[in-house]
Amino acid sequence: MKSINPIVLILIFFISCSEPEKPEYILNEEDMVNVLIDIHIAEGISSSLPVSFDSSGVMYSLLEKDVFTKHEITDSVFTQSMLYYLQYPESMDDIYARVVDSLSMKQALYKSQKENQ
To answer: How many domains, the chain?
Structure first.
């Protein structure tokens, strides 16, 4: 019986561990951050309205469609991008760190403008 060449094993290991190439329809990280910022703002707006839960859900759906229109994407592209990035926790952590930073900056800017009025 022949033994397997160690070089072949190493090559198989590196090939199997390489990250697959990102499909073209997946949003890049910068676009994903921008879409998520707007999605979270839409969620905040719809949840803060003094309306029933059902009406809030309808409002969110409309706002979400506006976000997708603004960024010129479809809901399926957004969903597929989320599923893609959820496979890579480090990338998703980086994306959400940027989203949180941007939302915090927007909130601070809003508060300072409100205080100056």
So the answer is: 1
